[in-house]
Amino acid sequence: MTIKLNELIQKSKNLVFFTGAGISTDSGIPDFRGPQGIWKTSTPIYFRDFISSNDKRVESWERKFSNELSIDSAVPNTGHIKIAEIMKTKEESHLITQNVDNLHQNSGIQEKQITELHGNATYASCLDCNKRYELIDLKQDFLITHKPPSCNRCNGIIKTATISFGQAMPEAEMQLSQKKAIQSDLFICVGTSLAVFPAADLPALAKETGAKLVIINNESTSLDHLADLVINRDISAVLSEMAL
């Protein structure tokens, strides 16, 4: 199967990778919906509750600064690094990710080649004026005051730069992702259950508009029947076998 995957990659010009939580588990970051997923032990805080409740904002920041998702100490694993290496050989390649851990950037992929559908958990921003804040500064103040941070420019609510449950998907990022899916000739899903919509519509869109579809995941997905190649194996192991 990896021989066929190699052949598809080598023939591809407009390659798109689409990654989910499964690619980051080898970096120590738990997934969300698997047997040991974070939502099995911790109820998500919905966006509307974060906005309306001071207590929920405090709880959210307490979770963040306790390193709930193990992001702070995580480094790119073999899967991240191999994708970065492959993309360096493909000038027109692009990566769409549902992850918020910044590990693709840390692996060497340029920002302009990455579209983050669910935002980024390594910094925060004001929901009103979009001013960026670094977490280390917010953490120092929060540990002293135990109050949720507010923007020093407009007094708006500050939130990690992620898309929470119940929060609208970023329109520009979704439009760009759809464009990249349509333009792709090979669309490779890596470590995603393909259960979160509308992001999970992208593989089907790529397939419908002429791309070859590959799904690499530890478990089967609901879109396996559409794929030209399905590999249900350890993600890092599969990607480490890829030839450039």
Secondary-structure map with pairings?
Elements: H1 2-11, E1 15-19, H2 38-41, H3 47-52, H4 54-65, H5 78-88, E2 94-97, H6 103-106, E3 114-116, E4 119-126, E5 132-134, H7 135-145, E6 158-162, H8 171-183, E7 186-190, H9 201-208, E8 212-216, E9 229-231, H10 235-240
Parallel strand pairs: 1-2, 1-7, 2-3, 7-8, 8-9
Antiparallel strand pairs: 4-5, 4-6
Helix pairs in contact: 8-9
How would you explain this protein's 3D organization?
This protein has 244 residues and is an alpha/beta fold. The chain folds into 2 domains: 146 residues, TPP-binding domain (Rossmann fold), CATH 3.40.50.1220; 83 residues, SIR2/SIRT2 'Small Domain', CATH 3.30.1600.10. It contains 10 helices and 9 strands. Helix 8 packs parallel to helix 9. The mean pLDDT is 92.
List keywords for this structure.
single chain; 244 residues; alpha/beta; Rossmann fold; SIR2/SIRT2 'Small Domain'; 6-stranded parallel β-sheet; 3-stranded antiparallel β-sheet; elongated
Concise synopsis of the structure shown:
With 244 residues, this protein is an alpha/beta fold. The protein is 35% helix and 17% strand.
Count up the helices. 10
CATH architecture designation of the largest domain: 3-Layer(aba) Sandwich
CATH superfamily of the largest domain: TPP-binding domain
As laid out across the biggest beta sheet, the strand order is: 3-2-1-7-8-9
> In percent, how much strand structure appears in the residues?
15-25%
Give me the CATH fold name of the largest domain: Rossmann fold
Radius of gyration: 19 Å
Question: What order do the helices and strands follow?
Answer: HEHHHHEHEEEHEHEHEEH
* Largest sheet features: 6 strands, parallel
User: Whole-number average pLDDT?
Assistant: 92
Judged by helices, strands and strand pairing, the structural class is alpha/beta
